[in-house]
Amino acid sequence: MADGRVIVGRISGLFGVRGWLKIFSYTESRENIVGYSPWQVNKDGQWRTVKVESGRSHGKGVVVKLIGYDDRDAAATLIGCDIAVTREQMGEPEPGEYYWADLEGLKVVTLDGVELGVVDHLFETGANDVVVVRGERERLLPFVRGNVIKNIDLQRRVMEVDWDPEF
What we know:
Layout: E1 5-15, E2 20-25, E3 39-43, E4 46-50, E5 52-58, E6 61-66, H1 72-76, E7 82-86, H2 87-90, H3 100-103, E8 107-110, E9 115-123, E10 130-134, E11 138-142, E12 149-153, E13 158-161
Parallel strand pairs: 8-13
Antiparallel strand pairs: 1-2, 1-7, 2-6, 3-4, 3-7, 5-6, 8-9, 9-10, 10-11, 12-13
């Protein structure tokens, strides 16, 4: 997020012959990605702005039609591109909630002040989200507020955790 962009999904394939695309959305809920138009897509290392014409849930995914991509061949040029929006487009999270992008880079320390590393990224599992902490080694911490994750201070860029440094 250093450049102000937050990756919110990826273009994963084609849907039909009229330029519709399959989207793998990282947003919660999955179809929220449609409402963030315009998007920035990273094609050949360059960010380009595209606008969503239409979109909807489809099965376990999302399909969209982008303005100016009116046939299968034009749409195919975007397969594999990351989709980003600006942080400002996302709005403010509810109190006590966080965007994953805001947590990346936070210093992670135990309640005893032992530094474990920094938040590299998070990922979702069936049970709970997991925080990947990179320091002298990689640690996977369950993102369980109150139990493991004790405090998040975005101003100080610190996440306090109740975690055994040996684990």
